[in-house]
Write a structure and sequence with these properties.
Elements (H helix, E strand, L loop, with lengths): L2 E6 L5 H11 L3 E4 H12 L3 H6 L9 H4 L1 H17 L4 E4 L13 E7 L2 H12 L3 H23 L12 E4 L5 H12 L8 H22 L5 E5 L2 E6 L6 H12 L7 E6 L19 E4 L3 H12 L5 E4 L2 H11 L3 E4 L8 H11 L4 E6 L4 H10 L3 E4 L4 H22 L1
Amino acid sequence: MPVLTIFSSTFCNKEEIVEQLLKTVDFNRVTDGDVVRRAIALSGMDEKSLRGAFSAKTSVFNKLTHGKERAIAWLRLTVAEMLAEGNLLLDGFSSMLIPSTITHVLRACLIADMPSRIQMAGEASGLSEKEAIAQIRKADEERAAWVYELFKMRDPWAPSLYDIVIPVDKLDTDAALNDIVENLRSEVIQPTDASRRVAADFVLASRVGVALAKEGHNVDVSARDGAVTITIQKNVLMIGRLEAELKGVAETVDGVVSVDTRIGKGFHRADIYRKYDFEVPKLLLVDDEREFVHTLSERLQMRDMDSAVTYDGESALDMVADDEPEVMILDLKMPGIDGIEVLRKVKQTRPAIEVIILTGHGSETDRETCMALGAFAYLQKPVDIDVLTETLKKANEKMKHNRATRS
């Protein structure tokens, strides 16, 4: 039986169509939640990180951690392995992870115009027009960001992404259902030996993708009959060394017969390929002296320690809540919420974050207060960069030890 995928936004009558479809065709429905739960068991990643892959918002630390890309690699492998189980109706963001080369997958998109969706939002959820528009736009932004992440296409409803596009504002449920069922019965969508081999290639490529992601790499991977092709989409200074490393990782995956590397269309862009170093913490610098904090960030970068920067306590607390840094370097004297209050709140809400106080205005009383609140270290400006670097390494080691102990 073919696999069916459905991608839609909010208030497009999806639930009713899917409910009726499951009564007509013997499918196992798999939602994004199901994929995430299985990916958790497969990868050991936490639910927040995996679900975050679907979000339009990307952590400020993602350029350092490649966290979204690693989550997508595990989600892709999960979907690839699920395909082999058959009788599958994959509903949601995860459906877009299946490559178009697998021909026994029917890709359906449900769409409707804005007035129809606003009306449906009012009838189904009692939303006002203003509330409905805000909710619909947010949902569409999430889907647009996801499609751009995967395909570098701006339009999530582009017909080229789907086999069938159903305008639910112009068709009732029965008509939409009949359209899907009729396409599922089409000869061209039935599984063949060739399409099953392509699905097996998808599994192998996904396993290689995960192996590379585990080593901090973010590249495109495809496979055909055991021959793996790795495409490098970002510029890299020592291409030969990177190619050798990528091949070395890929060749350890069972089922790989050969590995080839290629340069992708994005290779000549200004952004530089960077492998993620798992030994380097997600570092947040908090200081209202902009020139100082940027200079510090640059000096740390020269020592292979990248960081995110913010200039006040309120912004720092927002980043702690949303992006979860692992180590902070925190100034004491700042406008608004001062460093001591930031430290206090961080230790109340995210005690695992190690906080290094770096100040030019603190007193002995301030030092005692900070250490009592749980600061990892208290340093004075100007600080020797080697002393700060060593302190950061020790803070990172403590953070990792505590995390390992908890797990």
